[in-house]
Amino acid sequence: MAELLYCRESEDNILERALDGLTLLYHRPSGTTHIIDSPLPEILAGLDDSPVTLEGLRDRLARSFDFGEGGDVTAELWYHLDTLVEQGLVWVSR
Amino acid sequence: MALQHGVLAAEMGMNLQMALGWRRHLLIHASSVERDGRALVMTGESGSGKSTLAALLAERGWRFMGDEFALIDLKSGAVHPFPRLVSLKNAAIEVVREVVRDGARFGPVMQGTPKGDIVHLVPPVSAVQRMYQSAEPALLLFPRFGFVPDLRPVEQGEAFMRLTQASTNYVALGEAGFEALHRFVTQVPALALDYPDSESAIAAIEAMWSELA
To answer: Number of A:B CB contacts under 8 A?
Structure first.
């Protein structure tokens, strides 16, 4: 079965503003406002227009962040990506 | 609605017309008063005391700007006045009567409305005369009547969330509303004030206003 590929919603469709330690996003196509907290902004920043697999994204993020010992990083990443897909901020394809 | 509650029906109709139709400003369900060109915006649920506090402050040297809607300019962020009749409810009626001695400024008592007893108060003449003068927002307050005194800062995320809920046209304004509200919460400090009576609330407001100056 083909792996899922993830890419970020077009930057033209998202307006991003800082809010204390949070990130405020306005999704133009839906008119929806999102207030997101770490690690969602970091995951979004790790994505771009080019589709990437979950493993590829994990490797990309590992270059900038220390995941520490223990914990299922892949499962956690999948969970957060699923949330971002539901919110229309990330696209998923095969 | 009963015929004797006709003034309330008119008020609700006007509120609805504003809430659903106005697009020139970001509308926040809030009262506001001004001093020295800077506005204090107070928002909260019905019963929080925002109307009462605005009416009382207007008798103590503050300019009454409105008790129902704060109109936030979409470009400049300034608060635009909307000084219509003040809607006083239940115990607040007597609290304000003790301060405003001019009986001619009070409308008839409407008893047994869905919100209890209601009386409308005519704002000070100066408030209406200056209804075209906007003011820079200097403080956002979330008052809550009937609690032991407490004052705490409200973080920007919480303020943003609560103001989206308090705005009647945030969604309709789209990106313009998003930008206006973001500017407001990042530029205006926000505090939550719990208070047991109006006197202690006013003392707290005067004290925090002095600190801001």
So the answer is: 30
Determine the residue of chain B that is closest to A15 in CA distance.
B175
Q: Which two tokens stand for residue A17?
A: 């503003």
For all residues of chain B together, what is the average pLDDT?
Answer: 95
Distance of residue B187 Cα from the nearest chain A Cα, in angstroms = 11
Residue B54's closest CA among B78, B29, B76, B21? B29
CA distances to B30, B47, B80, B125, B194 from B151, in Å: 19, 18, 27, 33, 6
Q: Cis link prior to A41 (omega < 30° from 0)?
A: no
Q: Contacts of residue B156 in chain A, CB cutoff 8 Å?
A: 19-20, 22
Mean pLDDT confidence for A8-18: 95
pLDDT tens figures, A57-79:
999 999 988 887 777 888 999 99
Tokens of B92: 């607040």
A55 — pLDDT class (breaks 50, 70, 90): very high
Q: Chain B partners of A29 at a C-beta cutoff of 8 Å?
A: none
Q: Considering CB atoms only, which of B160, B164, B174 is closest to A19?
A: B160
- Please report where in the chains the tokens 């969970």 appear, as a residue: A79
Instruction: List the single range of A28-42, A66-80, B108-122 with lowest mean pLDDT.
Output: A66-80
Residue in the structure block whose two tokens are 């408030």? B127
Q: Is the pLDDT of residue B168 over 80?
A: yes
Q: How far is Cα B72 from Cα B32, in angstroms, rounded to an integer?
A: 11
Q: Is the ipTM of this complex over 0.95?
A: no
Q: What are the backbone angles phi and psi of residue B134, rounded to the nearest 5°?
A: -80, 175
B155, B164, B178 member nearest A20 (Cβ): B155
Distance from CA of B186 to the nearest CA of A (A): 7
Task: Report the pLDDT value the prediction gives residue A1, as an integer from 0 to 100.
Answer: 59
